[in-house]
Amino acid sequence: LIFLFQSLTLGVFSLSTASNIASSSSSYSSNLGFVDFTFTREPRDTVTVRGGVLQLDCQAQADSVTRRPSITWRKDGVLLSTVVDERRQQLSNGTLMVRNVVHSRHHRPDEGEYQCLATLDGLGSIVSRTAKVTVKSVNIHFMTIQQFCLNSTNAVSS
Ligand SMILES: *[C@@H]1O[C@H](CO)[C@@H](O)[C@H](O)[C@H]1NC(C)=O
Ligand SMILES: *[C@@H]1O[C@H](CO)[C@@H](O)[C@H](O)[C@H]1NC(C)=O
Fold first, then answer.
1. Least confident range of 17-21, 52-56, 75-79, 85-89
2. Helix (H/G/I), strand (E/B), else coil: 11
3. Which residue numbers delimit the Ig-like domain (predicted)?
């Protein structure tokens, strides 16, 4: 099912960009012969908290190509470099960092589905798995802990 969903996402993605994009791993026939272009690190499903830090890793490599692939990020299909947000930063190794994660009832800019794209000029692009990012409201944890303490107190006193 996950694979199906992934394929579906890729399909839509390829259609909308109409460029040379393959799945997580791919072999390209080029003037260097066959080149295996794969992700060595893909973003993982992540749960973070409001006010916290979100970190998503992405790294790709093509054998027999010494150039480092360039990494870009998409969230819910939108290229993040086109969205100005100073909380967001892409490190030189490709990792995406979001500081001070925002989460309110009506404003959840950081929650969603992230994908990274690795591109090697003259070869093509590959797109990673979809990483689902969930933001938990810290208040819920506090309430749970408080509840737990209250319950313990009740248990002890009764
Ligand atoms: C990139 O660097 C950051 C900070 O040093 C590190 O946490 C992260 O794991 C690195 N990413 C990869 C893909 O190695
Ligand atoms: C505390 O007690 C309430 C009501 O008895 C219960 O609904 C809740 O799940 C309990 N919480 C914990 C953390 O045990």
1. 17-21
2. helix
3. 37-134
Question: Using CA atoms, how far apart are residues 16 and 127, in angstroms rounded to an integer?
Answer: 14
> Which letter does DSSP use for residue 107 in this model?
-
Instruction: Give residue 57 CA to ligand 1 midpoint distance, Å.
Output: 7
Ligand closest to Cα of 151 equals: 2
Say if domain 2-143 classifies as CATH 2.60.40.10.
yes
Domain boundaries, the chain: 2-143
Q: Tell me, in angstroms, the distance from the centre of ligand 1 to residue 142's CA.
A: 30
Residue 111 identity? E
- Those residues with Cβ within 8 angstroms of residue 47's Cβ, 6 or more apart along the chain or in another chain: 133, 134, 135, 136
pTM above 0.85, yes or no: no
